[in-house]
């Protein structure tokens, strides 16, 4: 892809004269200048020099061409911290300005990630899509530790979900309240049928817009309920 867009240099074809030039010049000259004279990329010259076991001389490394910050004539010396300099924030444990308190962690408060890690097998949560999930293991990573409750209800009665199928709520029966998630409210459908159910292209524009707005409202409601439950459990 990059070659077709002309980003990378074409593959170098090294002649004996070009190799000899690198051997003679690389230890003493800037690599960029050698590459320019040979019509090659800097990386190509550097790679060839590495393969040949060439290194820059100490005289070159101490010269201005090397652009090393440790050179005595380096312009960066004037801007370095002097030896024994005391940082301005030494001993400061944190800076707090008016208005920051509302978004700061309180003493002893855990982040949402830590809270999820400390939950035990069998604990419940509502995910970002508004589905109720149950923690089923401590051994896997992240979201794989959790399974949607409506899927667990179906699997408890019917076994493992077949490949190419998913368990969903029947139309109008979706809920994230544990007592309301029962076997009669869920069903097994193919992924093709799921796609047909969820597509908006089969509806008039006005209905499609209403579906999108309904989803946005439901997400807001679920997020508010989740925050209220988190507050009451503290």
Keywords:
single chain; 234 residues; mainly alpha; 3 domains; three-stranded antiparallel sheet; two-stranded antiparallel ribbon; 9% strand
Summarize it.
By secondary structure, the protein is mainly alpha-helical.
Give an account of the 3D structure.
- A three-stranded antiparallel sheet has the order 1-2-3. Strands 4-5 form a two-stranded antiparallel ribbon.
- The two termini are 54 Å apart.
- It is 37% helix and 9% strand.
- It has three domains: 16-72; 112-191, no CATH class; 199-234.
- The protein is elongated.
- The chain is mainly alpha-helical.
- A hairpin with a 5-residue loop joins β1 and β2 (132-135).
- The protein has helices at residues 16-25, 31-38, 42-51, 58-61, 112-118, 149-158, 191-198, 205-233; strands at 124-126, 132-135, 146-148, 165-169, 186-190.
